[in-house]
User: Which sequence fits this backbone?
């Protein structure tokens, strides 16, 4: 965001400086022309030309202030004040210069000229006051702008009320699970609402209670911790329940209950939901599968691929960033609502069964630019908690995590979005050196070995420098990569390039869960075994002897597949 702001400042100030310089150069030119041309018609024409030039110069910086308030860099009223000061300064300078030249041409003692200039100043001043008033309204209307991609949409605080806010009702608007540290015994329930509840709890049981009318019919009660998302133009509260100490390979049923509502509100008692825990974690486990991909958005193609993903009946869904394309903008909260609704319409079965998510951050979660300060604003951390908070704030949690699912360990890594790759190396070493899991995998956003961007890309180079040697040292079996909006499968890779022995890490993915802009063409480079422009999700099957995967398009047809028996360094 800092880089973007600096670029924005340079562009607008350069444009303003150019216009101002042109105005200064034309001062002398107009001055000479006016002295040569004593006619009223000639001086009036030159005056209008100069007025237009100054207006153009003033509007440039005024629009720059509007962009700053639209991006929430400055409040709208500050933008209005700065713009007004600038407009009056430009008008004052223009009026003084034009008046001086006219007097030089027409004579200082011309009474008619004095009366005309006074009348002209009053008219211009009145129009300028009216214009600045309208500009203040424009600053307010443009503030809190939301710009999203795939599909692209733009909204402001003026246009958003015309669309439906799905979270206005009293009941929870989004209910979903994230994978905890071990899918066999821990998941984190997230509940979104536009209201605060008195005492929200989760009534949990291994026995379905479809006709139960109270939480007492369920054997377990789990407390929640709340967090109110800041800087939004609406109220959004997220409640978290750490569902821990669960039994592996077991179906659980639950309802969300507020039996002690705040004054003036009714009790909350939702429909019955369910989920299935994963197999016991360890060197061996029963077979399971998951789907993975990244770079989604909320397009029709994304929805089709999400339906394909749900049809595989996965144990969980791993998403490698750039999920809703909210661009880290607080005003884009409704894009996340649309994204959660899209997933729920496919991943939530008619019986109420939830499929948990395992996620990693992408650059569009961080604000569309790398190394974003999450303390400024981010939906990512409060929307995807991956371990019990135990009183901590979700914004204070690390942006990377590890997860066990049966015989598989999956690292969710941060590819320089919130945390430098170098800052995660000691943690990666500690986790990978102590895990008993048969399979070592990782999911993250930017690829070590890109298929579209140049291999010299600074982020990819940084990841290869810090993560590549560790992947090779500990024998990472598969790395699920994203970001390039294409499909690729590499040859077995070591830290510095393709393996000559066939033993190495497979880097698969590059993220195209619904994006179909047609602009990204993957390259079959020396390290790539297969590339494609197809939008896809990966269906990955895991057992004790192999990891197999199929790349599925929007028709559920496989266009690539692979099997690995592991990387033993």
Assistant:
């Amino acid at each position: 965001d800092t880089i973007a702001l600096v670029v924005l400042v340079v562009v607008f100030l350069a444009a303003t400086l150019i216009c101002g310089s042109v105005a200064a150069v034309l001062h002398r030119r107009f001055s000479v022309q006016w002295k040569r041309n004593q006619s009223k018609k000639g001086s009036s024409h030159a005056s209008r030309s100069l007025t237009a030039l100054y207006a153009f110069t003033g509007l440039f910086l005024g629009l720059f202030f509007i962009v700053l308030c639209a991006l929430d860099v400055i409040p709208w009223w500050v933008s209005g004040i700065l713009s007004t000061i600038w407009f009056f300064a430009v008008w004052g300078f223009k009026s003084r210069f034009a008046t001086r030249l006219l007097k030089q041409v027409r004579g200082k003692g011309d009474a008619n000229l004095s009366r005309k200039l006074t009348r002209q100043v009053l008219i211009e001043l009145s129009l300028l006051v009216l214009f600045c008033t309208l500009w203040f309204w424009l600053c307010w209307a443009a503030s809190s702008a939301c710009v999203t991609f795939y599909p692209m949409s733009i909204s402001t605080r003026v246009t958003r009320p015309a669309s439906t806010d799905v979270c206005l009702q009293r009941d929870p608007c989004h209910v979903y699970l994230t994978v905890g540290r071990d899918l066999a015994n821990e998941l984190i329930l997230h509940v979104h609402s536009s209201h605060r509840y008195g005492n929200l709890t989760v009534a949990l049981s291994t026995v379905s209670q479809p006709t139960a009318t109270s939480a007492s019919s369920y054997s377990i009660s789990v407390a929640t911790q709340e967090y109110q998302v800041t800087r939004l133009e609406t109220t959004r509260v997220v409640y978290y329940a750490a569902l821990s100490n669960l039994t592996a390979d077991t179906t659980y049923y639950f309802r969300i209950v507020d039996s002690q509502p705040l004054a003036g509100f009714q009790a909350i008692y939702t429909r019955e939901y369910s989920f299935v825990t994963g197999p016991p974690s360890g060197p061996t486990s029963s077979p399971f599968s998951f789907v993975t991909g990244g770079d989604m958005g909320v397009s029709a193609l994304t929805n089709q691929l999400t339906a394909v993903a749900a049809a595989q009946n996965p144990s969980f869904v791993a998403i490698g960033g750039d999920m809703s394309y909210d661009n880290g903008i607080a005003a884009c909260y409704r894009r996340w609502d649309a994204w959660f609704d899209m997933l729920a319409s496919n991943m939530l079965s008619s019986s109420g069964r939830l499929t948990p998510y395992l996620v990693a951050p992408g650059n569009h979660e961080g604000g569309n630019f790398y190394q974003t300060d999450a303390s400024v604003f981010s939906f990512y951390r409060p929307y995807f908690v991956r371990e019990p908070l135990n009183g901590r704030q979700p914004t204070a949690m690390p942006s990377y995590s590890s997860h066990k699912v049966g015989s598989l360990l999956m690292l969710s890594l941060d590819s320089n979005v919130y945390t430098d790759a170098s800052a995660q190396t000691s943690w990666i070493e500690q986790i990978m050196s102590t895990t008993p899991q048969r399979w070592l995998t990782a999911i993250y956003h930017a690829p070590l070995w890109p298929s579209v961007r140049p291999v010299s890309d600074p982020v990819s180079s940084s990841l290869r420098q810090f993560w590549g040697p560790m992947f090779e040292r500990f024998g990472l079996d598969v790395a699920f990569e994203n970001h390039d909006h294409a499909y690729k499968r590499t040859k077995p890779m070591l830290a510095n390039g393709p393996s000559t022995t066939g033993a190495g890490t497979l880097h698969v993915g590059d993220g195209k869960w619904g994006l179909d802009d047609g602009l990204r063409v993957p390259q079959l480079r020396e390290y790539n075994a297969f590339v494609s422009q197809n939008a896809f999700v990966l269906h990955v099957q895991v057992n004790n002897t192999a990891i197999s995967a199929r790349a599925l398009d929007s028709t559920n047809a496989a266009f690539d597949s692979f099997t690995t028996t592991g990387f033993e360094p």
